[in-house]
Amino acid sequence: MRTFLKETVFIIVGTLILAFGVANFILPYDVLTGGVAGIAVLLKPFLPLSEEFVASFLAMILLIIGYFTLGRKFVVSTALSTLVYSSSLIFMSNHPVVIETDPLLASMYGGMICGVGIGIVLRNGGSTGGMDIPPLIMNKYLGIDISKGVMIIDALTVISGLFIYNVNAVLVGLISVFFTSVALNKTMSLYQGAPTKSIQIISPKHQEISEAIQNEFERGTTILLAKGGYEGEDRPIVMTVVYENQYQGVIDLINRYDKQAFIIVSDTNEVHGEGFTFDARV
């Protein structure tokens, strides 16, 4: 329940950040970008409706489509974000923060803010709904990778502006899409925690080294059973993952027991489990 509540709070916060970026940067400056906000800007010359209403309406329609194509479970996990996004977007658009800038800067900062919001939502197991849904449908029925599907949908949305606006509007829109992607990736990486390294040690002193790592650094170890390719001898491998600030200390420890030890070190992108993520701790 604690994990569920934490994720729910972060999903709401991420959705509010997304709505802020759209309401104060994307829509006021008619930035052609991805998502329902970009389509709302694209349809502005043809519909006598506010852009925030069009974006909210499209999000709801896509949620219904998701129910029939992706199932009830998807809708339940996405409905909260969709409802918060639609209501907060209308409210923020009616009570905007006065930010005077040029369209290029609005495109850049709007894209970054939206990317941060989307990243927080996705990292906590949620979905912003809207234009997340077509790529998921493409993945389910056509086998197209979700990230590629997002790029295809966003690119088609922005490029369609050539027929309604002009080349300059499209170029500004592509900048927004780029900064959204960069901010999204950076936000996702922040959740990976402190930098870690994976270390594999081959040594006759493997048992002593393993116990020393556990006792001195309070890091878990795993003994992997391997066989030498040349002589065919059994060669146990000690594997451990440590924080980057513990790395040199572990190397010194290994050299203390065996200066001839064969050591393989690699950077790890992400670690989950007891000792590294809070969810795994009692």
* Tally of separate helices: 10
**Total beta-strand segments:** 4
**Terminal Cα span:** 14 Å
In percent, how helical is the residue content? 55-70%
Placed side by side, the strands forming the largest sheet appear as 2-3-1-4
Task: Name a few traits of the molecule.
282 residues; alpha+beta; single chain; four-stranded antiparallel beta sheet
Task: Describe this structure in a few short sentences.
The protein has 282 residues and is an alpha+beta fold.
Any overview of this molecule?
The protein has 282 residues and is an alpha+beta fold. Helices cover 60% and strands 9% of the residues. It is built from ten helices and four strands. The chain has helices at residues 2-26, 35-43, 51-70, 72-94, 103-123, 133-142, 146-159, 167-190, 206-217, 247-257; strands at 196-202, 221-224, 237-243, 262-268. It has a four-stranded antiparallel β-sheet with strand order 2-3-1-4, covered by helices on one side. Helix 2 packs across helix 3, helix 3 runs parallel beside helix 6 and helix 6 crosses helix 7. The chain is elongated and about 75 Å long. Residues 278-282 have low confidence and may be disordered.
Topology:
Layout: H1 2-26, H2 35-43, H3 51-70, H4 72-94, H5 103-123, H6 133-142, H7 146-159, H8 167-190, E1 196-202, H9 206-217, E2 221-224, E3 237-243, H10 247-257, E4 262-268
Antiparallel strand pairs: 1-3, 1-4, 2-3
